[in-house]
Specification:
Number of helices: 13
Largest sheet: 8 strands, mixed
Strand order of the largest sheet: 12-11-10-9-13-14-1-15
Helix content: 25-40%
Strand content: 15-25%
Number of strands: 15
CATH topology of the largest domain: Rossmann fold
Radius of gyration: 22 Å
Order of helices and strands: EHEHEHHEEHEHHEEHEHEEHHEHEEHE
Structural class: alpha/beta
């Protein structure tokens, strides 16, 4: 019988992450909207389309509900449009279902949800056609709601936020594919703000609402703004969001074990800003990780495994859960096929870990620098190997939670719950 590999001892640590927690984000949101003085800009009975995306934003159902209520207070007739590019399988029903999973339903919001993949061509910029959701385009007004955060694919003054919502989100599948194609000629840092500006200039945007979360995934800041203030305000909020975002507290690892990837975790399944690589894999970043092992996929992803191509190893159970139709649609719209490449898949976690630790050079497996996280969004706690104890002790943001212990596997060779 083959001897099992000696694996590193692990211990659980907590990480203090930056950023305040807004005590009452919904009350603050209400005050922010009222401070805009919108009554003079609308007429009773007019319609307003409110955008809702596919990301797992904290408090999003409550936030959208407040926006609906405040619009009603102005005498407007609000409705919600799913603004999520090609997500939800690029179908109207699929995108409605994504919102339902976040608690955004007609009954809960008190207004209609108008979901369609039909778009209107509203112009062109730099030789690229610009599209807008047909229902949002036909409304008298539009309210753009999104979280501001670092984008997974590029760095710029404007990354993921209101401009991305106006470009990729409202562009639906046709727009997402068009803009991602344009990014092969220009950079995302140019395409998204340029397309977003076209929507802002052409559509009847009444106001925007930006949400910033702290490193713990809590609502840290909400900011309502008028269209002329979109660019400068989002630029400033992005700087703050990057200061607060959670990251791995190590610059070099032999193995990162990610318990779950998923669209509700990151647009790319795993956040490149955390793992130090993107699915284009052209721009090495920190941290430097020799092997990444993705164990499973979140139920909320419903099989959309975009980003699995960033992992080096995975499990057969994850592969069995992949919905190749939705994954391919999203990957094609994103414009980089490597995002859907399936790495070597193993029958058990132990087998994958042993293979990974056998490929890290001269370092004995038991002395490997290993970290295990639930996903790249929740980084307040993690497991670290004994080789990292010195760095943990020297980092005032890290705190020991458990003593050293062996990695525990069940009878099938799989790790227990995080």
């Amino acid at each position: 019988m083959m001897k099992l590999m000696d694996l590193p001892l692990m211990l659980r640590v907590s990480q203090d992450l930056a950023g305040p927690t807004l005590a009452d984000p919904l009350a603050e949101l209400r005050n922010q909207i009222r401070a805009l003085g919108l009554a003079s800009k609308v007429r009773p009975g007019q319609t307003i389309a409110i955008t809702a995306g596919s990301r797992g934003i904290t408090n999003i159902a409550g936030i959208i509900r407040i926006v609906v209520q405040e619009c009603r207070e102005l005498g407007l007739q609000p409705f919600i449009v799913p603004a999520m590019g090609s997500h939800g399988g690029a179908t109207a029903e699929g995108q409605t279902h994504v919102l339902e999973e976040y608690g955004i339903t007609e009954a809960a919001m008190g207004c209609p949800i108008k979901s369609s993949m039909d778009v209107v061509k509203i112009g062109s910029v730099e030789g690229t056609d610009v599209f807008c959701d047909c229902n949002a385009w036909e409304a008298d007004h539009m309210a753009v709601v999104n979280r501001v955060k670092a984008h997974t694919d590029f760095d710029g003054e404007i990354e993921s936020g209101l401009f991305k919502m106006m470009a990729i989100g409202l562009g639906k599948r046709q727009g997402a594919e068009s803009y991602h194609r344009a990014s092969h000629e220009y950079s995302y840092a140019e395409v998204i703000p340029t397309v977003g500006r076209k929507v802002l200039e052409t559509a009847r945007v009444l106001f925007g609402l930006a949400i910033v979360e702290n490193g713990r995934g809590e609502t840290a800041l909400v900011k309502a703004m008028l269209p002329p203030d979109f660019y400068e305000t989002e630029k400033q909020l992005l700087v703050q969001a990057k200061l607060w975002m959670g990251r791995l507290p190590f610059q070099r690892l032999d193995l990162l074990i990610v318990d779950e990837i998923g669209k509700n975790v990151s647009g790319t399944g795993m956040d490149p800003n955390v793992i130090g690589r993107d699915y284009i894999q052209k721009h090495p970043m920190a941290p430097r990780i020799r092997q990444i092992f993705a164990r499973d996929i979140t139920p909320e992803s419903e099989g959309n495994a975009l980003g699995i191509g960033m992992a080096d190893l995975t499990t057969q159970r994850l592969v069995a859960k992949i919905n190749h139709v939705t994954t391919n649609i999203n990957t094609i719209a994103a414009g980089h096929l490597s995002g859907a490449r399936i790495p070597m898949a193993f029958a058990s976690d132990r087998e994958a870990i042993e293979v990974a630790l056998g490929l890290i050079g001269l370092t004995p497996p038991a002395e490997a620098r290993v970290v295990r996280v639930k996903n790249t969004l929740h980084l307040t706690e993690m497991y670290v190997s004994k080789a990292l104890l010195g760095e943990v002790s020297a980092n005032p943001r890290l705190h020991f939670l458990t003593p050293e212990t062996n990695l525990e596997f069940d009878l099938k060779g799989n790790l227990g719950p995080f």
